[in-house]
Amino acid sequence: MHKPIKTQLILLITTLTMEMNIMSFLSLFIFLIFSIVTVSCDTPLSPSYYDQGCPEALPTIKRVVEEAIANERRMGASLLRLHFHDCFVNGCDASILLDQTSTIDSEKNAAANLNSARGFEVIDKIKFEVDKVCHRPVVSCADILTVAARDSVVALGGPSWDVKLGRRDSTTASQAAADANIPSPFMDLPALIKNFENQGLDEEDLVVLSGAHTLGSAQCRTFRARIYTQTNIDPAFAHHLQTICPQVGGDMKLAPLDPTPNSFDNRYFTNLMSKKGLLRSDQALFTGGETNEIVEEYNENQNKFSMDFIKSMIKMGNIKPLTGEKGQIRKDCKKVN
């Protein structure tokens, strides 16, 4: 082979190799850039999310929750319920906290929340105190709801767990979605199972999260039909409730959801096995259907109920959170920035 031709071939091979290396480098660079963008836009939730930015956030939430429950024991159940009703409507994004405006279709006006959901002033107090110790609005209202639910359970004798954090707040709300997605106290078992399945929750989640009714009370309007028309109810229990809840009027009168409404225990499940579930949706869990065995298990083993409650609360808290650049950190939980 002539020397000039050999030299040209070497130069050509060298050039091609360099171009391929450059292309490989560019491909890798572009891949890394897209990976970084993807991570930043979809940041995973983490219990340590505020450890560096505001380490005093969680102790502050705990303090305000404990003060509110010390002032009124029922408030613990109310704060826990706010978190449930938030997560079941387009995810855990604090949409339930937004007031009605010309552009906000407030979930506070949904059938399950109107003249029923409460504790909003406690959330506002927590937000004020947290922003003060953090020196700026760094903790989302969605995370405040989630942590306040956990702290309420603990304050009333229930288990504790590490709450995954990093949710951001929605800029919209939907009364229609709340009416469609929040479980009704009038649902039967198939409807309840379907409702929870729509949120990515299974039958065990349904039973264990319904066990949150170990805390709190319900309004007469939610159980009137059960105590006057249903047959799968203990007669003495129904008669007692009829003294509280008349057939006409008294819609807002309260009855406890289990015999110890201010203590986290497994008495709720004992009630179901005795046909003393307050709501139709409560007793539906123990009527010979596929959830009977789960109810029996939690009635016999409070520790298992507590451990499974933790798992299901974490699972529910992961329903469609806004993370990364999605949503916002509201300055006022009642309105968008």
Automatic annotation (TrEMBL):
The lineage of its organism: Eukaryota, Viridiplantae, Streptophyta, Embryophyta, Tracheophyta. It is found in: Secreted. Heme b binds at H213. Its EC number is 1.11.1.7. Binds 1 heme b (iron(II)-protoporphyrin IX) group per subunit. It comes from Cynara cardunculus var. scolymus. Keywords: Calcium, Disulfide bond, Glycoprotein, Heme, Hydrogen peroxide, Iron, Metal-binding, Oxidoreductase, Peroxidase, Secreted. Disulfide bonds join C54-C134, C87-C92, C141-C333, C220-C245. Its cofactor is heme b; Ca(2+). This is Peroxidase. SUPFAM superfamilies: Heme-dependent peroxidases. Its main location: secreted.
